[in-house]
Structures are given as C-alpha cells and as structure tokens.
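Collaborator request, handled under Task 6.
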Amino acid sequence: MTTIESAGRISGAGAGLLDRERTIATAGFNRWLVPPAALCIHLCIGMAYGFSVFWLPLSRAIGLTAPKACPDISLWQELFSTSCDWKVASLGWMYTLFFVVLGVSAALWGGWLERAGPRKAGFVAACCWCGGLLLGAIGIYVHQLWVMWLGSGVIGGIGLGLGYISPVSTLVKWFPDRRGMATGMAIMGFGGGAMIGAPLANWLMDQFKTPTSVGVWETFLTMGIIYFVFMIIGAFRYRLPPTGWKPEGWTAPSEKKTMISEHHVHLDNAHKTPQFWLIWWVLCLNVSAGIGVIGMASPMLQEIFAGKLIGLPDVGFNALNAAQKGQIAAIAAGFAGLLSLFNIGGRFFWASLSDYIGRKNTYYTFFILGIVLYALAPTFAAMGSKLLFVLGFGIILSMYGGGFATVPAYLADMFGTQFVGAIHGRLLTAWSTAGIIGPVVVNYIREFQLAAGVPRDQLYNTTMYILCAMLVAGLICNYLIKPVDSKWYMSEAEVTKLQASTAGASAAQQTGSFGIGTGGLDGKAALFWAFVAIPLAYGVYMTLLSAVKIF
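Structure tokens returned to the collaborator:
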C-alpha cells in the first residue's frame, strides 16, 4: 500500500464515506453539480499562484519594520537560521517546489486516483494542502525555512497535484458532449485562486499584525482552516457516472471527422505512443513561454514604460526617484492582476471553443497567434502604446491558461476516457519542466542584457524572439499529432473486465442511466454555483480595481 493510499484510508465506519462505491451517482443526480465541486478544490489550491504576497512580510519576520539581513549567509545556512531574516529570492524557491512537486505527485499517484475515485483523492488533497499550510505556519513561527519548504512546498505540493487532477477524469466522463467546457470550468478555478486568496491574505495579515509579529503564520493557519472546509465540501460533492452512462439523446461524433477516439488506451501504454510525447511538448512549450512572462510581468511593465505610466513620457526607469518607483510598482501590480484575469477567462473560453473547432485547431491558434503577438511586443513597446502592450500580453496569457484547460480534453480524444485522469497526471511533468525552463530563459537573458548595457526599455526584445522560436517548435509538434495506432487500443474484453472490477459496473446494473445527469441548472445546482461564484466575483472585482490604475 502506498503512502497516499494509507493517507486516504480511514478506519471504522468512516472508510465507506471515501470509497469509490459511495460516489456512484443514482437516479435524480444532476451532472451540473460536479463542476462547482471541482471549483471548491481548484479555487483553494490556486492560491499557489498568489504566494508572492507573503514574501515581503516574511523577509522582515524578525526585523519587523525592516529586514534583519545577514549579507554573507548561504542558502544552506538560511534554511536553519533563527537570527537572520529570509531573502525574497530564497522564499521564491517555493514556486519551483510547488510546480515540480505538483507534476511529480500527479504522475506518481494518477493511477491510484483512477482506482480510488475522486472523493478519496480530493480528501487527501485537502489534508496535504491544508496540512502543508499548518506545517508552514509552524515553520514561520519557529523561523525555520526548511520546515516551511517541507510543509507548504513539498506536502502542499502533493496536495496541489492530487487536487489539480482529481476532477479531470470525472468531468470528462460526465460531459462527453462538452469535454473542453467541462474541464475549462474546473481548471479556471486554479487560475482564479490567487485572485481570491491574495487579497484575503493581505487583509488577514493586516488583522493579525502586532508589534511582535508580521501576521503571516496566523494567516497561514486561518487560510488552512478555511481552505480545508471548502475542499472537503468539494470532495464530498464529487459523483461518478455509472459505467456506460451518456447524456440522454447524445451520440458520439464520427471518429474520422473529429480525431475523437471511441477506444481506450491503457495507462501503462499511453506513454509508449508518440502522441503522448508530442502533446507533452505541446504543453511544455506553450507553458514555458507563458510562465516566464507571468514571473516577470511586474518588472517588465515598469522597465519598459517607466515614467510613461505616471505621465512622465521622457523619464526612464533609472531616472525615477523612490516615490515614483513606488507609484509605478503599484500600477504594475494591477497589470499582473489583469493578466491573471485573462488567464482565468482563457481557460474557460478556449477550452469551450475547442469543443467546436477541435483540440488540434485550438493549439494551432495558440501557437500562431502567440508567435505574432510575441514578435509584435517590442514594436508595441517602441510605440509607447500601453493599451496594445497590455492587450497583447492579455491574449497571450489567455492562451497560456487555455492550454492547461484544453489538454485534458485533447488527451481524452486521443486515449479515451478510461485512464484520462492518470494520463493527464503523467503529462503534468511537462508543467514541472516548463516551470524551470520559462523563468530561467526570461530571467537569465534579462540579467545578460543588463550586464551588456542594454537600455531597460529594450531588455526584453531578445527574450520575445526566443519565446517565438519556442512556439514555432510547439506548432510543429502539434502538426505531427495523428490518431493513436490501433495496436495500442484496449480490447472490449479488457475494458469490460476493468469496468467490472470497479463499483461503477454494479451501480450501472442497478440504476442504468435513466434520470441521471439531467436537470440543467436547477435550484440546487444554482445554489452550489453561487457558493463558488461569489468569492470568484470578489476576486475579479478586486483585480479590476487595481487594473484600472494602468490606464
């Protein structure tokens, strides 16, 4: 039994509550209750994107009003020091931990998720993500960076991985008629988590701040409790359709016209096909380009436009005084927030569009439009057009988010739905790789350009052209994707045997598909949607408030 399996098993009568058998839908269940359950989890774990709000307060956790710096301290010494404040750069390693561990854990335990069901996986994700926040709070309280890395970074990262993939297979099975839209609805929550969590964290830190504390460990603890409640609600609202269920009146589209396979490929064979690795590179290259921009969005706007942001068109970044730099930093924060809004909207828009134009054509759009916009970015900067620059990068970030939301449906089209959650988990190692490639390319080229004496408003020109080249490579990979060779298909006997070994088969015999999945957005579903939509609307409102400062 694996560690995750042990964590997911509860002794006594409670064990049944998490078992897959307890999650099979019965007559009268409405499939529109499943996406908000997924959003309950994704809106919580999406706070991983917003962790940068903690870095400055944590960098003066000991000094309180100013960092108690130890200039010669090494990163290794920093991990155990109780007398020196942490550097922002050292805290920033949390991002790398988050996304590397997310990919690795999704790959390792995706197969277990398919066997155990989404409820158990969602429960374990809640324990890991929120337990990681609790351990992180302890690490901050005792001022041990290694404890915070282990808690929030590693254990929390496992929660990220399991929470991220927990709804994918379920939603694809509930919405075979709208795979892209269904996964887009859930995965947009991961992009929106920071929009809710970052303002909430700032407000909580203000409430908990005292003359002896910057209020971060208390905020970690409080958010851990809030997130645990939300994630448990989401996990227990998951339901699986009975084996063989399909929406009433729906028939599968022609495989020849759509590249949507009616066959299933086993998890053990998916990675042996060229299609898996081509989609892996498609995701990796699309994400590498976008994630590098996300990490540098704020300094990029400040350095390119500088005085233009505050009505001083002829004043470069280095000529600004401290107060003016503070002004443009606040405006750039609005830019970063606006990009996150495009990121969320793109997840739903592009994934839904892919249901109509196909996954392959959607990725063609990402790469071709992305190449054009990256190539034009230096021109927009030279023109001094804030509107074109912000709009261009907004569209780029919408396609970054859209790539995440569309790829589960792409995998289901290629490999069938039987193991799509686990296959998606393995594919997310592309995200882990991109989380290293993207920021390294953008950050190191910037440092090289600075050392070479390139003016700050031209620092990113070369970077944009390199990102164009990455997208060209992604375009070629997407072109090479063809339907999976029939030799990899599972036989009908294998599929039947596999399905018979799960609770779904017996449930299907008892209930059939009559009255399951119907109802549309009825009263119960509308209330559940409101439960997740209200905090999301708050996040959008707060983001727009800061974004209007750009113009």
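The cover message to the collaborator said: "The CA atoms of residues 453 and 459 lie 9 Å apart. The two ends are 57 Å apart (CA to CA). Please let us know whether this matches your experimental observations."
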